[in-house]
Specification:
Helix 4 (about 90-100) packs parallel to helix 5, helix 9 (about 190-205) crosses helix 11 and helix 12 (about 270-285) crosses helix 13 (about 290-305). The chain starts with 5 loop residues before the first helix and ends in a 7-residue tail after the last helix. The chain has helices spanning about 5-10, 35-40, 60-75, 90-100, 115-125, 135-150, 160-165, 165-175, 190-205, 225-230, 250-260, 270-285, 290-305, 335-340, 350-355, and strands at about 30-35, 45-50, 80-85, 105-110, 125-130, 150-155, 180-185, 215-220, 265, 320-325. It has about 375 residues and is of the alpha/beta class. Ligand AN7 binds near residues 89, 190, 242 and 328.
Length: about 375
């Protein structure tokens, strides 16, 4: 079957009509990869999966929201889109706007976006402004500009973004035959946790699942406004995608947490890096640092004994299922990948020189 994108697949759940000019790169349909090394750690009869959103056309989950936002902008006759971005939104907006023949203007925090994402926005023909400020400053500016000018705002405060992104929950349920017990997710501007929860609730109401998962959101410790309960003026983390101090969907994220019986907690940069390395080395899954926050959160809870508490113990009689969303591809951020790895060994072009350095771990 030719997969024609998530609007085509989930049209009946989306605010589109036959008249909507669909702008698609055949996004969605991303794999749900079993992660055995973590399943064992949680307990017996547990399955952990990574929903690898880095395999969308521009390498992040943003494409799900962008196919909707750009299609609707075109339907409404708009000729330009604009966003503030820590990188992935700008890459996705630039690609979809380019494909739609629309102008794209993006504002990024100068010096704090991963190289691959900047390359994408530029390559897809966006006008890129690097502001001397952070994401929160950039979002304030684009909200103001798009209020006053005929330019469509395509940050996740645009409701069509959330509509597109909720389809990831539909895919999880379609793949597993029911909703998972726990859903782990990185939280930055909090649009995605809002969208996943909306998707789980809607599919449950439509009779597609018998349960709804507990939503487990994780912020970076240096950028954890929801956990701390106040705006963080100067957010910091190596996971630049979630370096956000005043999330636009703050209230919706708290509602997802509370309605699902979940939590929003934080993980340190060290915990993020260790999950980032584990996924790449042990599971063959190369995600960007922010994406590893979901898995870092799961590892944190395993280590704290969370799953051993009676109220969180796996139900008997069936498998417990845990889904961790990994939101973006590791290739987006080559600088962090290099910082968190060993360096290549420089050698003369001879067999002897190479064999002198080769390590063979015969226990594997
Ligand atoms: C890889 O691109 O905010 O909580 O401007 O790129 O929905 O914000 C990116 C966010 C997680 C957080 N993982 O999602 C942007 C931007 C990755 C991301 C998040 C982002 P939200």
């Amino acid at each position: 079957m030719h997969w024609r994108g998530l609007i085509d697949r989930y049209r009946e759940y989306l605010p589109v009509t036959e008249a909507t000019p669909v702008v698609s790169l055949c996004e969605g349909n991303t794999p749900l990869i079993p992660v055995d090394s973590l399943s064992r750690e949680v307990g017996d009869n547990v399955e952990v999966f990574v929903k690898f959103e880095g395999l969308n056309p521009t390498g992040s989950f943003k494409d799900r929201g962008m196919t909707m936002a750009v299609s609707k902008a075109r339907e409404e006759g708009s000729t330009a889109v604009m966003c503030a971005s820590t990188g992935n939104t700008s890459a996705s907006a630039a690609a979809y706007a380019g494909r739609a023949g629309m102008s794209c203007i993006v504002i990024i925090p100068d010096g704090n976006i991963a190289m691959g994402k900047l390359a994408q926005a530029l390559m897809h023909g966006a006008q890129v402004f690097a502001v001397q400020g952070n994401f929160d400053d950039a979002l304030t500016i684009v909200r103001d500009i798009t209020d006053k000018h005929p330019i469509t705002l395509v940050n996740s405060v645009n409701p069509y973004r959330i509509e597109g992104q909720k389809t990831a929950s539909f895919e999880v349920i379609d793949a597993l035959g029911d909703a998972p017990d726990y859903h782990f997710i990185p939280v930055g501007n909090a649009g995605n946790i809002t969208a996943y929860w909306k998707g789980y609730v809607e599919y449950h109401n439509a009779g597609k699942s018998t349960r709804r998962p507990r939503m487990m959101g994780f912020q970076a410790a240096g950028s954890a406004p929801i956990v701390l309960g106040h705006v963080v003026e100067k957010p910091e983390t190596l996971a630049t995608a979630i370096r956000i101090g005043n999330p636009a969907s703050w209230k919706q994220a708290e509602a997802a947490r509370d309605d699902s019986g979940g939590m929003i907690d934080m993980v340190t940069d060290d915990e993020i890096v260790s999950a980032y390395q584990h996924l790449a080395r042990v599971e063959g899954i190369f995600v960007e640092p922010a994406s590893a926050a979901s898995v870092a959160g799961l590892i944190k809870l395993i280590q704290s004994g969370f799953f051993k508490q009676a109220k969180n113990a796996p139900p008997t009689g069936r498998k417990t299922r845990i889904v961790c969303v990994c939101t973006g591809h590791g290739l987006k951020d080559p600088d962090n990948a290099r910082k968190c790895s060993s360096v290549p060994i420089s050698v003369p072009a001879s067999i002897e020189a190479i064999m002198e350095h080769v390590c063979l771990d015969l226990s594997r």
